[in-house]
Amino acid sequence: MGAVLKIDLIAAARPNFMKVAPVYHALRRQMRCDLRLVHSGQHYDANMSQTFFQDLALPDPDINLGVGSGTHAEQTGRTLMAYERLCIDRRPDWTIVVGDVNATLACALAATKMGIRVGHVESGLRSRDRSMPEEVNRVLTDAVADLLWTPSSDANENLRSEGIPEARIDFVGNVMIDTFEFMRPRIEAASTRADQGLVFGSYAVVTLHRPSNVDDPARLATLVNTLGRISADLPIVFPVHPRTRARLEGAGLLSRLRACAGIRLLEPQGYVSFMNLLTGAAIAITDSGGMQEETTYLSIPCLTIRDTTERPVTLTQGTNQLVRAEQLLDAVHAASFAADESWRAAQKRPPLWDGHAAERIVESLKRHT
User: Fold this and answer.
1) Among the options 25, 209, 241, 356, which is catalytic?
2) I need a surface site. Which of 70, 243, 261, 364 has the fewest CB within 10 A?
């Protein structure tokens, strides 16, 4: 037998944990390797990190870099330096990064500069909006990575158009769907929806956290007022991101939301609890990337409060729509058709969104090692 492959799998922020989990479990099942789970420490409180690890059956990280919060430059720089030191102490054969957060780019850069091979899960997504830090992270990570695992055919085309050699691109599908199918029994058995008194198919789920929506008090006020009007006809459940809560409090808007009888404000939810809410929703209102994919898979209409998306496949599938804050009320009313079961039944899932993407990633890694 050959030498055991040393692999570092990087976990950073909550949106990435759902992508890390299926890869971790597939590596454990399918490959003889010395696997080290490295947490950057970007999300370090229990609701934003530990709960997700427990839900996703992930062990405690082998290493926590303890990076914490800060500006984009501070987070990226601290992560790069900390991960470089880690690689000097114990050099991996491969560093696997996921998604598009600051630690994704930082660890990819540190590994590349040391001659360590890098694999990128969820490569090739593009919004064409360089004002989004995540877009910069995506482009630069793909430029340096050795093996690019893509979730959709448009991602393949994006990479080809940027001059990435075909040999580095491997279309494997969407690992987020792996996580959902792995956790489906627990999601369906969870009582979160019932505990909130919500009726299946008769409420909206809202998540907001992007600076473009929550940092401008005027724009945030528009969203709060619109959510209040929507909730008069359609109950809303709104798990509030810590950053969003701080902005709402700072703008004096949190009390306005609390005064709306039709809005339930929750703490950030673990994966199982949140997906129990989402699977029963009539509609999702969000600025998240992952929820655009999850609602597409579940055939739930999604209104994304952004000007661009790095997941255009959700638009072409017809389940997702980009809207501005001032368009939201009309868009919710227009999407009411989607409560029709015949509409949901007619939706088709994108290719390779089948719950086996992580298995294909491991097979790809074997072929390239």
Assistant:
1) 209
2) 261
